[in-house]
Write a structure and sequence with these properties.
By secondary structure, the protein is an alpha+beta fold. It has six helices and eight strands. The chain has helices spanning 51-64, 84-95, 145-156, 166-196, 204-216, 223-273; strands spanning 17-25, 28-36, 39-41, 47-49, 69-76, 99-103, 116-126, 129-137. Strands 2-1-5-6-7-8 form a six-stranded mixed sheet, with helices on one face. The protein has a two-stranded antiparallel ribbon with strand order 3-4. A hairpin with a 5-residue loop joins β3 and β4.
Length: 274
């Protein structure tokens, strides 16, 4: 996630506050990014959000990530504090959001679960008065292949042991195999050059063995290889074309919706004027 330096405004505070960015799909909300906000605490312990910074940061994030919106806010701490209700009301007034994510930044390293709790703010009647209640909600972590590989690599890396991730082991084995093959190939090449120049006597039996070995390697100029190689290139080009077409269709759909909204608004204004 993206994090913004909050300058010295709240460097003395022991907590951090920021916004959650994502998209809502039906009844599910996907959180994909975050940014930190500047805040201060008054003499009564009330949190005051720097709304100028929050507005500028939100606009800049929307310019970069056009498909995401503010879906909630987060704070560090072990439990919900009394001032979180006021902050949540402020966030709801600014962005009409209902999610609050509490992150325990002082988790025990032996814990197996992520130190995250997500709450949904609901207005309920308590003693005949409407009150804001934080209700816990379930969540799940979705990762991509690159993220899973990175997490596996980091989880196996320790300074006290020589353990490594599966990716590193595979890459090391591949590197060692290629290095050994390259070294032996250079030795055979130097041996044949020396034999051809007359530095060493020719060994017909050994030459026949090397010729037999080279014939076992795939011939890159064969028709089968060319056909398979061209097929793979064409498949990759088709995938690139489909991705470009899909992106173009998405942009066209977005433009058509904006045009539809614009003309619909004009027609309504004209009808009211008439």
């Amino acid at each position: 996630s993206s994090s913004s330096s909050s300058s010295s405004s709240h460097t003395s505070h022991s907590r951090a506050i920021g916004m959650l960015l994502g998209a809502q799909k039906g009844r599910s909300i996907e959180i994909s990014n975050t940014f930190e906000v500047i805040f201060s605490v008054d003499a009564n312990g009330n949190v005051q959000i720097n709304q100028d910074f929050l507005s500028r940061k939100t606009k800049s994030m929307k310019n970069v990530f056009k498909d995401i919106d503010v879906v909630g806010w987060y704070s560090t701490g072990k439990s919900i504090s009394s001032g979180d209700h006021a902050v949540h009301k402020t966030m709801c007034e600014l962005f009409d959001t209902a999610l609050y994510m509490l992150v325990d930044s002082k988790m025990n390293i032996k814990d197996t679960e992520l130190p995250i709790q997500i709450y949904e703010g609901n207005i309920e009647m308590v003693n005949g008065k409407p009150s804001l209640i934080f209700s816990p909600t379930s969540y799940k972590i979705e990762t991509q292949e690159a993220e899973r590989i990175a997490v596996d690599h980091i989880s196996h890396y320790t300074k006290s042991t020589n353990s490594s991730s599966q990716l590193v082991s595979q890459l090391n084995n591949l590197h060692n195999s290629i290095s050994m093959l390259s070294k032996r190939t250079r030795v055979l090449g130097a041996f044949l050059e020396a034999m051809e120049s007359g530095q060493i006597p020719k060994d017909r039996a050994l030459i026949r063995q090397l010729a037999h070995l080279s014939h076992q390697l795939p011939t890159l100029s064969s028709n089968d290889f060319n056909n398979e190689f061209n097929t793979e290139i064409n498949d990759n080009i088709i995938i690139a074309y489909l991705a470009a077409i899909t992106s173009g269709c998405a942009v066209s759909s977005e433009i058509s919706e904006k045009i539809g909204f614009a003309y619909t608004g004009k027609s309504r204004k004209f009808a009211r004027a008439v």
